[in-house]
């Protein structure tokens, strides 16, 4: 099998990689770049845990091939640490104990960061739509909704 | 800007898949594709010639069968001679990359000679084929127990009501898949990181499986991404990584895929239940007679416990004069079933609460009011000698009645349904009969002013470490952040049996309080000597020890710790807990007793589309008596979690009933509830402090799930005017039961 080249930034740092054409972004981030802040629960696009931002869009990283992402700007949950908006969202969720085991949390934070970036006061429908691709088996959804609806309420 | 103080959201937490010791190797398992077959040959040559593969092993490298219960160790770490379910591990391959390990495992050639397989309980019961030669009737355990004058009660009954119930299996589907990293160390010790709910059982079981001294095994539990009972047992992947690491003297990691979790899961048993109820002239329950059949899958696991609980826990939460049950766990060629949230009790609670409603209909009485009349009183002893301490069951029913408008007139096309339940706060007697403490704790104060709590508890997301820190801090009169928790390392922490049977808050909580009380005493003594004020006239407040009479007189906590160190060295308190209980005088009496019982009640409001058979849950009120809410936010989180998991089991989830193939094996097909699926959930905390609980606390992690499922089924049954007696209530199944 041949190799492909992919040049992109992850959390602001440029990477030039030679990858197997079949390699998924999730494996590139975790195995090659050591970014264990990206978790995974299924590798089949169903759980949302591995969600990252690709050019501002929240996307499960298990569904994208690394070789197709040249020129992209990628942000992981850990890469949002200095973002005031991400801190606000995380603090609001923690204050409600919306996360229990925490495994879904980084993916959800990334998703919500994308949502709040384009809609600072999202409606319940918008929030539900954003969270609909994420499984929280601990059942934190109602507490998440409660925390998030209050977050930027006028 | 608010500042996050948690570690989860930005991905800082380390789960087992994030552990990366130097020189790490990767393992993968080759699994059976047959439900039941003789293994003619396991050919490892293809695997061994795969680039990057360093070694491959089959079942012959292991010498012992494993299992959680000493009397039913029936499972080889890798299949030997026979495979008994699709997905059973047959061989393991270790390689320099995860991909190479996977390729190698795919190239293990397994030659089978298929045997007629047993897909379900009915086929198992015929005994035409046996799954284990030592169990010719395919029954792991046949428990028959009878308490009180059962036959007399039925012959004198004013009314007898009966029903047959079916409950499909379900799975935990924790978001983190199982996994382990094992490292056989140069000093000839095994370190193993595992996503486990019971590090000390794992230590013991690994030592047994690999003929090691338990002292040579160090279990390290990193963050665990959910358990719900699915990570209690000791699994093939844990034993295999340990063995491979020992062979190669390098660390080995094996993380299960989502598909593999469906084979490994040890999910809820599929159950068939026949129940009869004898009612007296004042509508009292005279007796319950139950016949319970459980589909245990191919191996025993913790199934003995399930079998007993299914019958024993029928004795709560209602008053009975007599109880008789027969509970059997059958072997089938399905992945083994095991403990899931509400272990052993969820299926039978569904059946019992359906039957209570059926009886209420036939008596023409209100099912909620009736349940209140039937409730066991505080301090009651049940027919099978379970000792109830506190009970807030009546209050739970009142709360859900009030909040749901139970007594108001109903809306056209909608119906309310109610159910009640009770659950254990830990098992009074351990899996291995012994007199050792179930939980121990150490608390150390140091001159920095920090308290460090060493505890064996296994945090799996339920908030245990938080609750333990809270109890220690309260006992010491300090803020919670002064206490840091060191847990999940069998080298560093005293034994706690683990996160199962809802035991942790009560048992670990008692040992933590005892340890903190010792430290408190040492600090007060040191302060008393310096201040020349008697101990009983001193108080500890955040950061200081002061005179009760004059808060201006005192010294800082740091100073008190330093003084205590000067006087007697290390400031250390220890605590332990073992339930002070004796089993009753009948065989099987060790399963069921608990130091304290929690109580719950739920009301569901549903509407049903009669053409489609679609049940829509609009509201779910869930009240739970947790004794004392040590941390209200954590209690609420558990109530939501139980409500949603119960809702999913009632309407969305099923592992399928066919033993030959586990279906589905993809998360997307399984049907875990998502945010858009949910009813409005109204959690209600009830507190009836129990004398046995730490500050009166009882469990909250499992019990609240129990009434959710029957409340939904009862509401839907009322809406349709038919008995919906099987779970899940998929639309096609509803239509089958409801033919207008």
What's the short story on this structure?
The complex is a heterodimer of chains A (154) and B (740). Chain A is an alpha+beta fold and 154 residues long.
The helix-and-strand class of chain B reads alpha+beta
State the end-to-end distance of chain A. 56 Å
Largest interface: A-B, 58 and 57 residues
Q: What fraction of residues of chain B sit in β-strands?
A: 15-25%
The beta-strand count of chain A equals 5
Radius of gyration of chain A: 16 Å
Q: Helix proportion of residues of chain B, in percent? A: 25-40%
Which percent bin holds the helix content of chain A?
Answer: 25-40%
- CATH superfamily placement of the largest domain in chain B: Aldehyde oxidase/xanthine dehydrogenase, molybdopterin binding domain
- Work out the radius of gyration of chain B: 27 Å
Low-confidence segments of chain A, ≥5 residues, pLDDT <50? Answer: none
Q: What is the CATH topology of the largest domain in chain B?
A: Aldehyde Oxidoreductase, domain 4
Do you know the CATH architecture of the largest domain in chain B? Answer: 2-Layer Sandwich
Discrete helix count of chain B: 18
Average the pLDDT over all residues of chain A and give the rounded result: 96
Q: What is the arithmetic mean of pLDDT of chain B?
A: 96
Percentage of β-strand residues of chain A: 15-25%
Number of strands of chain B: 27
Oligomer class: heterodimer
